[in-house]
Amino acid sequence: MSAQMQQPPSYRLRPMREIDLPWVMEVEQAVYPIGWSEGNFRDCLHHHYPALVAEQPWSGEAFGYAVSSVAVGELHILNIAVVPEHQGRGLGRALLRDLLEAGLRQGADNAFLEVRSSNIVARRLYAGMGFLEVGLRKRYYPMPDGEREDALVLALDLSALTFR
């Protein structure tokens, strides 16, 4: 059965904790050519940014994580990652949706994020959730070969959002 047709594993979303950081770093390195440092995650936790882990309720096995920030009526989606073998099952969408709902509860009117121009899977996810391209950051993301990749800036008007 293909990853697209498999049912998502049973999971719950819970706040990320410092004890999660070794696992988070393993996934970050597996998913991104050059990702965040452990210090980036630790700073987000220290400043109480919304940060989630998707895990299996009975075993605690973690499948993905997400981090955002909310300030001055804006939600910024900072990082979303799903373990490669669990991608394509709706976990990224669930994490994103929870961050959007939390942003609404915290008074955000708009959501913003950057995505690698080459990350077609993530771009499809964001488009499917209603994000629109509003800008371009030239040479934003570092690459392992020393080059840099452009980032698309995406935005979503949260006032028009309805969740079923």
Structure, briefly:
It is built from four helices and seven strands, in the order βααβββαβαββ. The chain has helices spanning about 20-30, 40-45, 90-105, 120-130, and strands at about 10-15, 50-55, 60-70, 75-80, 110-115, 130-140, 150-155.
Task: Provide structural commentary.
The chain is of the alpha+beta class and 164 residues long. It has a single domain (12-160), classed as Aminopeptidase, CATH 3.40.630.30. Helix content is 27%, strand content 34%. It has 4 helices and 7 strands, in the order βααβββαβαββ. It has helices at 21-31, 38-46, 91-105, 120-128; strands spanning 12-15, 51-55, 62-71, 74-82, 110-116, 132-142, 148-157. A 7-stranded mixed beta sheet has the order 1-2-3-4-5-7-6, sandwiched between helices. α3 (91-105) links the parallel β4 (74-82) and β5. It is globular, with a radius of gyration of 15 Å. 26% of the residues are buried. The model is unreliable at 1-5 (pLDDT under 50).
Total of DSSP H or I helical runs spanning 4+ residues: 4
* Spatial order of the strands forming the largest sheet: 1-2-3-4-5-7-6
How far apart, in Å, are the first and last alpha carbons?
28 Å
What string, H for helix and E for strand, traces the elements in order? EHHEEEHEHEE
Radius of gyration: 15 Å
Number of domain units? 1
Mean pLDDT: 89
Number of E strands: 7
By CATH's scheme, which homologous superfamily applies? Gcn5-related N-acetyltransferase (GNAT)
Give the overall shape.
Answer: globular
* Corresponding CATH architecture: 3-Layer(aba) Sandwich
Low-confidence stretches: 1-5
Q: What structural category do the secondary elements indicate? A: alpha+beta
Strand content: 25-35%
CATH topology-level fold name: Aminopeptidase
What is the CATH level 1 assignment? Alpha Beta
| Sheet with most strands | 7 strands, mixed
Helix-residue proportion:
25-40%
